[in-house]
């Protein structure tokens, strides 16, 4: 077993809505030399399971904090792939006035003009922003950037500079659950305001500072492995395929139009919710009392969350991720087990599924944005055989 000696001292200076920080985060260690720490959200629905209503409520809370500082006007809400896609979509859903939504993506889509920029500290640095169908990017007054946490604001600075060259805005707002921007990083934001002659405001639930120390880490990538397969807990795992009709699709790969990858307005958001309510009737949970998992995949987080919200049952929700986190099977550490798999969308990209075997789920609904050959699912099916899950529903949207 791998043991890590690390310490993270937190000082919260602002708690805008008087929330309990312990309800929102835990701290883990990433297998990423650029940034070793990771604040694992308990309610984001990314690395560990939560209730759908708790994830959706994050958007409502951030909008509440926004309304304390800003008056909604018009513009675009932009969130960052992949961890921020769902929270940004939820913020957009609860924002008043004329706002559109767009999230960055690691997908390369031909025939769409992209605004490319970097997330320098990330395990996957390149982002695409398919902005050419966004009316409010040109006409709106404000850009709202949304992510789960902001530490240096470098990614936001990179994107603001790119947008400002095309469509200068009077104001930019950076929204997050956690804000750690201090000192020199804050000075850079202030200087950018002067350089661009604009306002850049931070909105957050918690603001503070932290010191992360990691000692005695003598590990290399080849030593940090996913959990070893043991004898199958469930050799007779039942596999069921469900095809949904999400109405509108884009491109040869048939991306769902209303994920936010290609832009979304308020009318389209209402249509998305109506479509999910209609299609959720095709998802039959056999035992309403048993624990059921709705599992999103990579950037495809918000729509699976909506299905979890609209379906009846004892449902938990989270997603696969590209983020490589070190797992330690200890009670006081959030990431207890890790399974590595190839992306269901891009074969050469590694994905991870955390803690799937640490809870006694009876059934799982795995949500896939693109219809793939059934062979693609063999690897993840083998992972589910290591769990308590008796029935796996592969939901092709």
UniProtKB/TrEMBL annotation:
Residues 258-383 form the TRSP domain. This is Phosphoribosyl transferase. Transmembrane segments: none annotated. It comes from Terrisporobacter mayombei. Residues 25-209 form the Orotate phosphoribosyltransferase-like domain.
């Amino acid at each position: 077993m791998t043991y890590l000696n690390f310490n993270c001292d937190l000082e919260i200076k602002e708690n805008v809505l008087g929330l309990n920080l312990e309800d929102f985060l835990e701290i883990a260690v990433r297998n990423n030399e650029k940034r070793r720490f990771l604040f694992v959200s308990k309610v984001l629905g990314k690395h560990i399971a939560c209730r759908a209503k708790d994830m959706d409520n994050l958007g409502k809370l951030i909008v509440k904090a926004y309304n304390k500082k800003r008056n909604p006007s018009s513009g675009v809400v932009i969130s960052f792939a992949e961890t921020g896609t769902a929270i940004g979509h939820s913020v957009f859903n609860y924002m008043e006035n004329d706002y559109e939504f767009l999230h960055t993506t690691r997908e390369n889509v031909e025939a769409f003009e992209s605004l490319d920029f970097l997330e320098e500290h990330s395990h996957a640095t390149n982002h695409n922003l398919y902005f050419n169908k966004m009316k409010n990017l040109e006409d709106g007054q404000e850009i709202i950037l949304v992510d789960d946490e902001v530490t240096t604001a470098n990614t936001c600075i990179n994107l603001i500079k790119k947008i400002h060259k095309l469509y200068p805005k009077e104001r930019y707002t950076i929204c997050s659950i956690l804000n750690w921007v201090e000192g020199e990083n804050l000075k850079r934001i202030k200087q950018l305001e002067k350089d661009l002659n604009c306002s850049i405001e931070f909105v957050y639930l918690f603001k503070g500072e932290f010191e992360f120390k990691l000692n005695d880490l003598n590990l290399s990538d080849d030593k940090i492995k996913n959990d070893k397969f043991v004898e199958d807990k469930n050799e007779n795992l039942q596999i069921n395929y469900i095809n949904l009709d999400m109405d509108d699709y884009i491109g040869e790969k048939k991306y769902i139009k209303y994920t936010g990858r290609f832009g979304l307005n308020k009318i389209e958001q209402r249509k998305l919710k109506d479509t999910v309510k209609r299609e959720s009737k095709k998802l039959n949970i056999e035992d309403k009392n048993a624990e059921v998992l709705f599992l999103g995949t990579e950037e495809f987080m918000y729509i699976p969350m909506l299905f979890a919200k609209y379906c009846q049952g004892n449902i938990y929700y989270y997603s696969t991720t590209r983020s490589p986190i070190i797992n330690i099977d200890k009670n006081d550490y959030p990431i207890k087990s890790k399974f590595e798999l190839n992306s269901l969308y891009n074969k050469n990209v590694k994905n991870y599924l955390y803690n799937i075997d640490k809870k006694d789920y009876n059934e799982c609904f795995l949500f896939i944005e693109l219809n793939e050959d059934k062979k693609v699912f063999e690897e993840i099916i083998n992972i589910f055989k290591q769990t308590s899950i008796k029935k796996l529903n592969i939901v092709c949207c």
